[in-house]
Design a protein that fits this description.
alpha/beta, seven-stranded mixed beta sheet, 7 helices, globular
Length: about 260
């Protein structure tokens, strides 16, 4: 969520059909955020799609979850959705232009597309994330892995969302940039809380984020990953690192 809002797009009560790819959310669990969205728009049919199964014990009657690979040709009817939302597809998309063309075709005229992506680069504005630190190494290793298997881990740095939206034909494109802190170092209470959640999410499953890719694609051993994870956790818990990662929300409209 952004400032208590599930989405930054302006969606009115006339919305009838919604598709969510990767599932909405930020601090809340993605499934809960999507359930909240369905509750907020009870007259809309809401579909959550992901490549892995996701089915909470209780969901609103107007929400359903589906398994599908969105990098393949879509089977949804053209001009059938009022709003499509995507998030956290970094490193998963071989062709952003092709994906956004599918979104454009599937939206109704006047439909809204909202894309939220994050950078893999952990950085600081005050030099407290130095070159060669575990935090600095995080993004560099993902970028290297992406180059080897043909997936970009730099959607923000390469401006992929905006370029792909423009190429697909979207208009009135709006861009919102933000920083997500890692740890409770910010003075602002809201950003301090976000930083605590973001640090916890990363710290709890560092190995889960990197194990397959760093071992299979880059040849790291499990022992090397364990050592790296220990260094990263130590830095995440240290107050001397004022770390964050950039995020970007891009909203476009189908003419």
């Amino acid at each position: 969520m952004q400032d208590g809002k599930i989405t930054l797009a302006h969606i009115d009560e006339s919305v009838q059909k919604v598709l969510d790819v990767g599932h909405m959310g930020n601090v809340d669990t993605p499934e809960q955020a999507l359930s909240d969205f369905a509750d907020q728009y009870p007259h809309a049919e809401v579909i959550g799609v992901d490549i892995s199964p996701s089915q909470p014990q209780w969901i609103p009657p107007n929400l359903k979850f589906e398994m599908d690979d969105i990098t393949q040709p879509w089977t949804y009817a053209p001009n059938s959705f009022d709003y499509i939302h995507m998030r956290w597809l970094i490193g998963a998309i071989p062709d952003w232009n092709a994906l956004f063309r599918e979104v454009f075709q599937t939206l109704k005229p006047g439909g809204i597309f909202e894309s939220k992506e994050s950078s893999c680069i952990i950085q600081s504005d005050d030099g407290t994330v130095p070159y060669g630190s575990a935090m600095d190494q995080w993004g560099r290793v993902f970028i290297e892995a992406g180059r080897k298997f043909g997936r970009s881990f730099q959607p923000l740095e390469e401006n992929l969302q905006v370029l792909a939206m423009e190429a697909a034909g979207f208009v009135n494109i709006k861009v919102y940039n933000m920083k997500t802190s890692l740890g409770p170092w910010p003075a602002d209470p809201k950003h301090k809380e976000i930083g605590q959640y973001a640090r916890l999410a990363l710290e709890q499953d560092i190995e889960g984020f990197i194990m397959y890719m760093w071992t299979t694609v880059l040849g790291w051993t499990r022992e090397e990953i364990a050592v790296y994870a220990a260094h990263l956790r130590r830095e995440l818990r240290s107050p001397q690192y004022h770390a964050y990662y950039p995020q970007r929300i891009v909203i476009g409209y189908k003419p």
